[in-house]
Amino acid sequence: MRLRPSSLKTSFARYVTPGPRSTATMPTCGPCKVSFLHFRPLPVTIFTAIIYLALFIPLLIIHYVPPTPPPNTSLKESIGVDLEDTWHTLAAITKKYHPYNSRANDRVRTFLVDKINQIIEKNGNNKTQVVEDTYVNVLYTGRSTVKIYFESLNVIVKVQGSGDFEGEVGDVLVNAHYDSVSTAPGATDDGVAVVTVLGLIDYFTQPQNTPRRDMYFLLNNGEEDYLNGAMAFTEHPLAKNCRIFLNLEGAGAGGRATLFRSTDAEVTKFFKRAKYPFGSSLSGDAFKRGFIRSQTDYIIFDGELGMRGLDLAFWQPRARYHTQWDSMAFTSINSLWHMFETSLSSLIGMAHDGSYTFIQGSGRKHTGVWFDMFGRGFAIFQIADTFIWSMCLLTITPFFIFGLFYLLASSDKLYLLASSPKSNGPLPPKLELAGCKGFWRPFVAILFSTSAVVGTALLIANVNPMIMYSSQEAIWVCLISLWIITSWFSLKVANWWRPSATSRTWSIGWISFIAWLLLVLNAVAEDRLDVGGMYFTIFYYMATAIALVLSLLDLFFVPPTSHIYDSITHVDQLEDDDHRSLIAPSVDHTNALSPDDEEAEPPNEHTSLLRDSSNLGRGRHIGRRPNSHGSLSIGAASSIPTIENNEDDEAPCSSSVQCASRQYPGEQYWARHLPRYTWLLQAIVLIPVPVIITAQIALIVGTSIAQTGADGNSPVTAYILYAAFTVLILLPLQPFLHRWTRHIPIFLFFIFAGTLLYLLLAFPFSWNNPLKVYFAQTVDLKTGENKVHLVGVSSHIKKVVEENIPSAWAPGASLECDDDPLRVGLQRCSWPGKIPNVVPGHDWKKWASVNATYIGENADGIKTAKIEVRAKNTRACRLNFDTTKDKWVTSVDVFDPTGKGKTVKHKIQGEVTGNPVKQVRLWSREWERGWDVVFSYKLREIETEGLVGFVECLWSDANDGGVKALEEVKSYLPQWAVVSKLEDGLVIGEIPFVVQTLEG
């Protein structure tokens, strides 16, 4: 049966002796009107959700959408540059694929030279010099066993500065490469950069924009083939004048241009001038530590010339990089404007800088730590300063926090560690303060939710790893939803079982401790590895430490623990029932008493103060039960004589003062003295800065690695990074999750379930995010045997070939698939294909010729030989030596057969001499001229066979349909796949050779 009000009073009377009764008549009122800003479920849910949405939405927009340029007429008036004409120029140079080894490359070069001369003539600048480099030949070591011979076809534009400063300060270099790969028109790699350089030349050749420093604009040719164009520039006489550089590159196909890396903090300050800066020094650290294996011309200017500068590049999406979709259709004038604006702003600073900071040997060079804020602000620090900053935070902040703990303990207000106050009054001798109730629950919740997120990420990586290729956004949504659900559930259960007013403070404390550990790792990386990519930990820890301090300051508003009984007995003038409820267990009106309860004998002197709690309130008010040692929790000492139906409701009261002083239902009584609004300040301090900085890095990292699986990279590492950044982004939310209503978590549960099913079952590729496969064709120029090779992800490439390529299933065709020797982690499928027509009018037997001649031997037993290589319709070949422990090549010289060019032997910085030469790569600026290669070698014993090897000549022009097998692959590939080049040449013709000694 239901408990009647009269029996309610009687039941309370069983437990306590009535206190002094007030004779005043209590005014009645309805439920307390709690302020919307109190730490209650609805305001906490709404406010924290709004904060995250207000941060995520602009970060996503900035990440994916480049800024819109001003009207073209406005640009022509303000800076004198026609952006639309620049965009049209991009269309002119991307009509065809134009690798170094193609006829289209020559046409692009001629077009660019004509365009530059038109710009100079338009601006009337007769001090500008255009240099076509057709005389520098360079021979250098690529990898340790590879020699590269390259003949320059660079274009250099020198814009003379005013030079109104004393002494030598060094000139400014701007670089872009105008060659593309053989399978892409090169709109963003590197067409946008090339036309940006043309726009910059237009700007700086205008009389009103004359720079102070001399400026060199380099359009190099041959970047796609081992950075050959930039290496050739190192031997040009003008190179020694340059001390600052800006390299413009493309490693994606659209979006914003990001600051890939910089040599030092001093030169990075120029990028701060940009209106729309974008980038993080974490990307530079990834290059520095070898996590990103591809390179740009940046390493030549930095490593070989000792210059200081910036690497600005497009970087997403990688699925279109080096494919036919790297075209104007997939980029925009907005992307062009972003690269141009950031480049121009940086260069104005460089060109007009009159300091001596960048002269060689100045010594003022410090590693930089930098990042943008919402794509509008830019922060730059020296790594030495961030290290000092880190060490100060690691050492001083904990002492300050411990000092607050000491002050709280001295003032008897350290409720976080308090258990029970003593009493000499009529109340029970021991009551729980339960301040440490919430100590372990944040750690357990973090451990539980993080384990769930990591486990789910590994599940996806095991079942459908390539889904991140096209659905990285779904991965973020899935993992974020799961973390919130699991963390909210674990905290909610803990709060239901043992309500605690200290949950928020302990959560902030744990998060601050985790941030402190991350900051330790950052300090070690800064000191030992000279990388500052974990800079976010500095701001992360600062925010958490400040929030923790604010939480500790809350406790100074609470009465000392020794006075808690005074607080209980004098807080209100309540009726007897209310006084009794301070120590009596609350009773749920919805629970019926059993007959035994009504017929129980009256209490006497032998009756315990505490009854069996089997009939006491349950559910979220279970904290009102007697504790294990027979005392009552202060959390149970609610001044509310009834159990609320809704946790946002308050009991009837006599004044608004009483309303404001109520603690949250089920939590400790002393919590009513805590400030009601400081949680807002804690949320504002704790969430925005860590989320902004960490989420920006997460988006950059996530986009960078999402489509690297097609390159052979392990997907497990990528999924671990997704999980780690998910946790870091959401940790600042945890102190407030136990107050969230159930609505958002329930909604997120369905989101999680749907996205997880999609991620596990969906096909990972689409036309917008196609699987990249790599093509090459080899032809034996002695036997005529040819094979087509297609390389890709092992789980898909064989099926792609078997089901889609007609020549692979033709009668007699044998398909062979095995691990690829060039791209680790990928599989190569080979089959007989269509003979290419790369030398029109000539049979394959006459495509190339090789003549090997033995010259002699010196007194040290070093033999010398000469190989003459001639090939039609190409200007690229490779010479491969079959070297073993018994025979090896010691040195190589390459000569222009016409005798016009002089080869410069360039020594790479840090090059180790004495390594045997296994391959020589040959590049000529002229067609069908060939090379004469003289080399020395040594044999341990006389062999009749002599030195053997083979020549590979390359054909890279896919514009006229001569590579029939490539055209077949492009025609029959499914719409969710796209082809890229595997090697320097699309077609590789092989000719063996033998160098016979005189004895042989």
TrEMBL record:
Residues 154-344 form the Peptidase M28 domain. The chain crosses the membrane at residues 42-65, 387-409, 439-462, 474-494, 506-525, 537-558, 679-706, 718-737, 744-767. Its main location: membrane. GO terms for biological process: proteolysis. Residues 444-742 form the Vacuolar membrane protease transmembrane domain. It is an enzyme of class 3 (hydrolase). Pfam families: Peptidase_M28, PFF1_C, PFF1_TM. It is a multi-pass membrane protein. InterPro entries: Fxna-like_M28_dom, M28_fam, MFS_trans_sf, Peptidase_M28, PFF1_C, PFF1_TM. Its EC number is 3.4.-.-. CDD domains: M28_Fxna_like. The keyword Glycoprotein applies. GO terms for molecular function: metal ion binding; metalloexopeptidase activity. Residues 618-627 have a biased composition (Basic residues). Residues 605-616 have a biased composition (Polar residues). Residues 588-634 are annotated as: Disordered. Its cofactor is Zn(2+). Belongs to the peptidase M28 family. This is Peptide hydrolase. The lineage of its organism: Eukaryota, Fungi, Dikarya, Ascomycota, Pezizomycotina.
